[in-house]
Automatic annotation (TrEMBL), chain A:
This is Cell envelope biogenesis protein OmpA. It comes from the Bacteria.
TrEMBL record, chain B:
GO terms for molecular function: GTP binding; GTPase activity. The keyword Nucleotide-binding applies. This is GTP-binding protein. Keywords: Nucleotide-binding. CDD domains: Rab.
Length: 272, 161
């Protein structure tokens, strides 16, 4: 830069119109301002569009990418079945197990309640039996629950409710009182429903079924536990009708001891 | 020899049927009133003239009218006791009617008429009233004191064997 150049610059610096400078700055500011305003005006308009687009995008992933992913997964599973089974098994297994456990627990609670509520010689016997057989007591009870077991059998005179003969395993409550109450319940039900010739045939009580076989002067009440379905009922009815037809004679109704012995000889199997 | 017989106790509400039976069977008494609903059955074995008699006692719910008693509760009974409350005339006002009805229903079945709760009343006074009403009552008892209870059941028992 020579002396004349320097002079030129100096001249320009000193002599340029200040207003012109200010003007250029103002122009630049205006542009800036406009840009900012425009952006603010645009934003609300643009944003939803962006959002929509984004949503669409997300929604489309399964459609667009899904098949690809599934195919990939399928292939992966096919190639490593063992690994997948391994991975799923505990989850499903746990689900099934939890369900079964729940059901078992309900059953167990039922049985435990039974054990506790009937702390009888029979209960103690079962406990001993379970121990010697190496199975749990509850398991044994399950077996006992499965089949229909004959607990007590009474031949009861109609009306009076007096026992004419009995066959019984457990001697818990007084039989005469049971027979009386049974007769009362029976006549109550028969009265209450005005059933005419109809007679009460079954009472369900807790885990027990009392099957009632009616004859003209007496009825036979059989106390059973376990599953008592139509098939078992048919079997029991045959047994009772056979017994009544072939074994009971007139003198039996006046000789309780002999009658009871007959019952004992006839009903040897305690499971029906 | 051993025999079983059904016996029924009848009478209005709260005359003391259950209390008499409890006194006879368990030798206890309670002032609480627990209404009997339907029927309750108890048993007591007694020795009468060398015979073991099992009395199967049907404690029936009380009724304003004896006609309302379920027939099935009376069926097959060997004997019955009709109880009234000596302290409440309403329980013996219609006794003769009631007994006629029962005799028609249970012909030739031994019966004892019993005035209970005699601990609450003056017995000679009551006897006068009953005579006036033409009520023939031989047995008076108190389940509370135990007065006469055993005698009544046993004398009925005697008629059953
Ligand atoms: N003082 C007294 N109270 C008695 C006597 N017998 C019974 N009671 C009371 O009378 C009330 C009714 O007695 P229950 O034996 O329940 O009468 P119930 O005839 O069996 O009554 P229901 O079953 O309702 O027909 C109870 O509060 C007894 O305590 C008695 O001999 N003397
Ligand atoms: Mg009562």
């Amino acid at each position: 830069m020579n002396a004349s150049d320097k002079l030129e610059i100096l001249k320009e610096l000193l002599l340029t119109d200040e207003r012109k400078y200010a003007e250029s700055i103002t122009k630049k500011l205006e542009v800036l301002e406009e840009t900012v305003n425009k952006r603010n005006k645009l934003l609300p308009k643009v944003e939803p569009i962006i959002d929509d687009k984004l949503e669409e995008f997300v929604e489309d992933i399964p459609k667009t990418l899904g098949p690809t992913i599934t195919a990939a997964l399928k292939e992966e599973i096919a190639n490593s079945q063992d690994a997948v089974v391994e991975a799923l098994f505990p989850i499903m297994g746990r689900m099934i197990k939890r369900y079964v456990q729940h059901e078992m627990q309900l059953l167990q609670e039922n049985i435990t309640e039974q054990i506790n509520s009937r702390f009888t010689i029979k209960g103690i016997k079962r406990r001993l039996k379970a121990k010697s057989a190496g199975v749990s007591e509850a398991e044994l009870m399950l077996i006992e629950q499965g089949a229909s077991k004959l607990h007590q059998l009474f031949v009861i005179e109609k009306g009076s409710g007096i026992i004419k003969a009995s066959l019984t395993k457990d001697n818990t409550i007084d039989h005469d009182m049971i027979a009386g109450m049974l007769t009362a319940i029976k006549s109550f039900v028969e009265d209450a429903f005005q059933s005419g010739e109809q007679e009460l045939q079954q009472i369900q009580y807790d885990l027990y079924t009392i099957h009632i076989q009616n004859f003209s002067q007496y009825y036979i009440a059989v106390v059973l536990s376990g599953i008592f379905d139509t098939k078992t009922q048919g079997k029991l009815e045959d047994l009772l009708l056979n017994f009544a037809q072939h074994k009971i004679n007139k003198t039996d109704l006046t000789n309780q001891q002999e009658f009871s012995n007959k019952l004992k000889a006839y009903f040897t199997n305690e499971y029906i | 020899m051993s025999i079983s017989k059904k016996i029924v106790l009848l009478g209005h509400f709260g005359v003391g049927k259950s209390s008499l039976i409890r006194r006879f069977v368990e030798n206890t008494f309670s002032d609480d009133y627990k209404v009997t609903i339907g029927v309750h059955i108890l048993k007591k074995s007694v020795q009468i003239d060398g015979t073991d008699l099992s009395m199967i006692i049907w404690d029936i719910e009380g009724n304003e009218k004896v006609q309302k008693t379920r027939n099935s509760y009376l069926m097959g009974t060997a004997g019955y006791i009709y109880v009234f409350d000596a302290s409440r005339p309403s329980t013996y006002e219609s006794i003769n009617e009631d007994l006629t009805y029962l005799k028609g229903l249970l012909p030739n079945v031994p019966m004892h008429l019993v005035g209970n709760k005699v601990d609450l009343i003056d017995l000679p006074e009551l006897k006068k009233i009953l005579t006036k009403k033409n009520i023939d009552c031989k047995y008076f008892a108190s389940a509370k004191t135990g007065d006469n209870v055993e005698t009544i059941f046993e004398s009925l028992g005697k008629q059953l064997i």
